[in-house]
Amino acid sequence: MPEQSEVHLPDGVRLHVEASGPADAEVTAILLHGWTLDGRSWHRQRAALDEALGSAVRVVAYDARGHGRSSCMPLRTATLAQLGDDLAAVVDAVAPTGRVVLIGHSMGGMTIMEYAHRHAAHFTERVAGLAFVSTTAEGHTHTVYGLSPRIARLIRLAETTGAGVLARCGSWRPPRALLRALRPSIRWLLFGDRCDPADIRLVTSAVARASLRSIGGFRASIGAQHRLETLADLAHLPAAALVGDRDRLTPPPCAESIAAALPATELTVCPGAGHMLMMERPDEVNAALLGVLREVLGRPARDGRSAPALGA
């Protein structure tokens, strides 16, 4: 069973953290989930990394503020900038020494970019590898929901208006009965050709745990972020970017622009897959994450010590 703990942030928010592997591992992989989800969305990756790398890597997943088992927060802090600050605090708390590989899905990937932008020296000192899963560095630039641009603009207007209303609803959670009724819509929006019913149930459960303030509050920040210039400064790091060609929220052009900013990045496009790649295509995602981690483990640490043998 993973170890459970909390990171207490300066504004009183508590983040729920789960970790496996030795606390003194030279490399720590930190998994960041997407908007309205929680750390459970990475369950297949956590198991695969533990099995493949053993004690060489510590694997950490945490619930962002207002999500999962983390506490709610003031509306003014429902921003990607705050999530970037939170990630810096998590790195210090869960991996005070050693190298860190950051792995982000959707909003989690955007959080990594914000951390790099706002805490450049801290990021440079600690981060040794990156993986971006179904995410973007360009806000809603490419988001058309798989529909015509005109219809997409109307949907975005309705979504933005609704998000403003939800943001003012505080720590209330969505009614589970409503979410069950919305499962067909969730399946259409988030998944591609194939979908395990258990994954729909997990996603619905995660949305049920997210506060309405989080569901609505982060929308404006997510839509407005542009961090391609920040990514260009990280081109020296081992990295991977993955996307499904049926992703309605962060379609292939999002991953392509990330790969263009990071020329050494391994870009993987998964045919028939939607936005929830870690669930829909776990083998491809696991292979990409292991590729980055093994490259990091194979490099000497900054202090000149030899890297541990893989699987040790």
TrEMBL record:
The keyword Cell membrane does not apply. Keywords: Hydrolase. This is Alpha/beta hydrolase. The lineage of its organism: Bacteria, Bacillati, Actinomycetota, Actinomycetes, Micromonosporales. InterPro entries: AB_hydrolase_1, AB_hydrolase_fold, AB_hydrolase_sf, Epox_hydrolase-like. It holds the Pfam family Abhydrolase_6. It comes from the Bacteria. Coiled coil: none annotated. PANTHER family: HYDROLASE, PUTATIVE (AFU_ORTHOLOGUE AFUA_2G14860)-RELATED, MONOACYLGLYCEROL LIPASE.
